[in-house]
Amino acid sequence: MSDVTFPAGRSFDFTAIGRLCVDLNANEINRPMEETMSFTKYVGGSPANITIGMSRLGLRTAFIGKIADDAMGRFITGYLEKNGIDTANVVTDKTGAVTGLAFTEIKSPTDCSILMYRDNAADLKLSPSEVNEELIAGSSVLLISGTALAASPSREAVFLALDYARKHGTTVVFDIDYRPYTWKSAEETAVYYNLAAEKCDIIIGTREEFDMMERFEPNPERSDLFTAAKWFNYSTGIVIIKHGKEGSIAYTRDGAEHRAKSYPAKVVKTFGAGDSYAAGFLYGILSGWSIERSMEYGSAAACIVISSHSCSDAMPTAEQVDTYIERCNRGEITAN
Amino acid sequence: MSDVTFPAGRSFDFTAIGRLCVDLNANEINRPMEETMSFTKYVGGSPANITIGMSRLGLRTAFIGKIADDAMGRFITGYLEKNGIDTANVVTDKTGAVTGLAFTEIKSPTDCSILMYRDNAADLKLSPSEVNEELIAGSSVLLISGTALAASPSREAVFLALDYARKHGTTVVFDIDYRPYTWKSAEETAVYYNLAAEKCDIIIGTREEFDMMERFEPNPERSDLFTAAKWFNYSTGIVIIKHGKEGSIAYTRDGAEHRAKSYPAKVVKTFGAGDSYAAGFLYGILSGWSIERSMEYGSAAACIVISSHSCSDAMPTAEQVDTYIERCNRGEITAN
Amino acid sequence: MSDVTFPAGRSFDFTAIGRLCVDLNANEINRPMEETMSFTKYVGGSPANITIGMSRLGLRTAFIGKIADDAMGRFITGYLEKNGIDTANVVTDKTGAVTGLAFTEIKSPTDCSILMYRDNAADLKLSPSEVNEELIAGSSVLLISGTALAASPSREAVFLALDYARKHGTTVVFDIDYRPYTWKSAEETAVYYNLAAEKCDIIIGTREEFDMMERFEPNPERSDLFTAAKWFNYSTGIVIIKHGKEGSIAYTRDGAEHRAKSYPAKVVKTFGAGDSYAAGFLYGILSGWSIERSMEYGSAAACIVISSHSCSDAMPTAEQVDTYIERCNRGEITAN
Amino acid sequence: MSDVTFPAGRSFDFTAIGRLCVDLNANEINRPMEETMSFTKYVGGSPANITIGMSRLGLRTAFIGKIADDAMGRFITGYLEKNGIDTANVVTDKTGAVTGLAFTEIKSPTDCSILMYRDNAADLKLSPSEVNEELIAGSSVLLISGTALAASPSREAVFLALDYARKHGTTVVFDIDYRPYTWKSAEETAVYYNLAAEKCDIIIGTREEFDMMERFEPNPERSDLFTAAKWFNYSTGIVIIKHGKEGSIAYTRDGAEHRAKSYPAKVVKTFGAGDSYAAGFLYGILSGWSIERSMEYGSAAACIVISSHSCSDAMPTAEQVDTYIERCNRGEITAN
């Protein structure tokens, strides 16, 4: 796979920087949150979920982030460590910031929403001086998540991490992960997302997320090819544009367009689909698989997560993904 | 009871203004919150709890407050209404504020702590123009809670409510309820607490809370008599100073000092003790009882709440309090 | 004069708390500021001007305030000291605040405007712990200026100063001095102005300023009598309501209404008229003169200031006021 | 001159984006500002000064910026227009922002300081949607000034302007112009300065400014060559590093190092030296002169400005610079 290469001989296969938060998932589902009585606590946040996924799939992983100095923060670090993720660069905030929260409401498998607590969130307090150059130099992949660009000083920490990655030849993956409520304006978002994307090797986002990034560069027909082509002028090798139920398309620098089949699932909720897809896909290409096979693997991993109650806690092992694919191939799993 | 009188012929016995929030109580108790797996959701906030208590005891109650425009906010209003509290003056924030949260951690019956989410809290967005003069004119009692003084515009809303109450002869109860994390400085707190207390008929607080109010007026021996005497120069008739396990003392304008016996309880946690005490005590004096009998009633109501998992949801009816007192008197209840 | 009395035997006749700033007066007048080439620098701010006026009239004066740690701040302190004002309680900000500025534009004697710089102003950083109780206890009069109520912590400093003044029997004068640009909302302003006014012996303001204070207490006919009567329920003895060119009216607790004749002037600009009026009037009543004579004296002092280029620097001595009155009486001065 | 080229056939030779403010220069010099009595008003701000300089030298110029909606703002626009600068993209703030101020204090020709007013400054409110792509596409040169990167939304506006310039082949000049008081931290500054510099063709700064940019990339010997070399990996063609009295050095992509002789001057103050130098130098290279000749021209322009009272108003015409050089060459001008 020549579109993107990965440096060998590094201590870690995968390091992510960004959001660490707590999901509070409604225990009573298929009803509005007003009528929910209790919630179960999980580690959350896109880059956290992806890293947990990568670790479960057997890779050597680390995280760069910031947690609140409280029980929620300690819960997060403890969970990462239990999952084999190196947390030496997960620092503790000392300014009184809190852990970001996501209360999830599952009205039906297709009608899910999230109530976010992002004011004074600890993860956005990560500062440039807390970004460890050696760790980035010692990782094959650095994953950045767009949410971490939403505010200072986390925004500057991510730009510095990107700089370190370019300097040391670490391959950079950009998970766009656009959450409007943490941003001051769509204009501001577009400017920083574009600045960051210029320095990334793989960019993954939904069609709507790329639309937002094209605010100052009209693409009236919302052409995926136009969108992808821009980034191939920079260092990008793969652009994945997700079209929801219609599946994802991967564009590569050589001009090719890659699609993969998807798998059926008994859907409980849609949360976490993107994170498990990213973990599965990245695992594939890090393993040297074709883009198509990697996409299928991501798709199967996503099916497993959306069939269960949590995101992070449901991230599958390689064995679980393999089994799921086999069962699908045998026709044992059908959609709800 | 001539120390404080209550206007007759009003539509409501009791109206409170201030904090409305959500408590998330750990389901797995006697462990640190890091190890808690799930939480149960209750309505919370001192003035909310007291109002629910008053309503359960059979009084006609109303609330002036502000909720977030989300599922948490709708849950609060729904719960107040189910408890017979008039919510015509509970307005909905339109600025994107969130519901204040209190995660409770119960490590042991005597080692409890709270993890608060107060950034961008909807209750502190209540503005003066949202304070209904007619409602205050139509209530026998207005209860204000000190937490509502912590930030603008809620602070100004409370001062305006106090002004309306004085104008219409509504009796004012001040529950000090000092929560340092919502204030910019102890100096600021002391100034506004004193300004508010000057306009109140009954003041209820802990010794530590009165210490904080005396920041600019030294009382080196922390004399309760000195503390209470100051307020009798204004319109105050009763000052209750709470000394934790050593019990409370009520000082009255006539120079008397009142103490009451307390009851035993099988304590689960200490949260909510003050709120149920306030509800029981105020119910008593509104009923024309002696201060001592009112204090005992408050004490019994508090025992019921600290013996159960929640605060608001455990607020007792008059029948429950009476039964509790009878059982204690028969020696059927002993402390843990 | 029994409406308001002044404690005797104090070290200072007059102490003011509040705004200290710099006026930059256009040297080229009768043109818009766009065409102004240069500005002359003066000390400014209502309470500063009044204190300078009182000192020029021969009283023993002091100031409680905060200045920026820069050349502008040092200029202010130096000027106050040159004018015989005690500056032991003028403290220096250490947070990087700046000196408030007022650029004055004089298009014509009746068309004057001000361009204010009030962001991050040092005077609004005065904190309660910087208010010296002994100084207030040692002054006959404390003057507070409404602008100092516009933001924390200056607002709390003023409320604490009021508390000290009541405690020690110091007579309090409230110069309303409402400047909308420093306030968040008119609601907020009304609440704090009313809270402060309850504790003052003399209140001086324009009809428009009292209208603002009556935001929650309708006075649809804008009756001066209604306005003044409210404050006589508190400790106030004199309420002066200014009606611009139609002159001022002083209301006293005994129900009387006092008006005084005014003097002609060759007007250069209208700035500073209120400050010099206040200084002259207060000098009169502190001297035991009748309200009418005091008002006339204030009026003459105002004429002197509006006939000159500056505010602070033009504040007259008693000799200058006496001479002005004599010359008017001899018909030597006529209006422009 | 092949290090940097300039597109031909554009409507404007030079467009700047960024700070527009007002300088208030002490009329009484050689004394501390405390003793200054009056100030003269000039247009100020580095990019404004440079643009005025370019216009005086005969180039076709435009400005992209934001002014306060007051007399100061109108004064700025009026002055730019009088100097032949296109102001169609100088927009007026509607949020109540003020014009940034710089009070200059001249204690001696070598001891000058500035008292800045930058809180709520209108120039930092420029937003991306106010950046005109066509203007940038129609200009040979875009100059950005580092101060405009200090805060949102001006920071994003500059990054968008850089994007437009790269897209349309407009040559970009970066005047570092680092003013610490407008930034939150040196870390934040370094990150954004580096991000911007990557997209610039000519970078001009002092040794100290480049030190700040190298915060995360140690250059312990403060080597100019190391500093310059970094930028030649991007699109930069010329890096000018200023060493104060020891003169400036221009590094070019071809590895060469250029120095130029300087001229004597009767120095009144040092303000404005950098801006006039930049204008003179850029005029030279836009005219196709050698780097050395351009540097000498900048040096002569700077001498003229530091010999006079103002910055903007003293920017010389080409005739004035030529005359100055000739007089220096004839020995008619000597240093003070």
Automatic annotation (TrEMBL), chains A, B, C, D:
Recorded superkingdom: Bacteria
Start and end residues of each Carbohydrate kinase PfkB domain: 16-317
Record bears the keyword ATP-binding: yes
E.C. number(s) listed in UniProt: 2.7.1.92
PROSITE patterns attached to this UniProt entry: PFKB_KINASES_2
Pathway: Polyol metabolism; myo-inositol degradation into acetyl-CoA; acetyl-CoA from myo-inositol: step 5/7
Any GO MF annotation of the entry: 5-dehydro-2-deoxygluconokinase activity
Keywords: ATP-binding, Kinase, Nucleotide-binding, Transferase
Enzyme class: transferase
GO BP of this protein: inositol catabolic process
HAMAP family: IolC
Protein name (record): 5-dehydro-2-deoxygluconokinase
Organism the protein comes from: Paenibacillus nasutitermitis
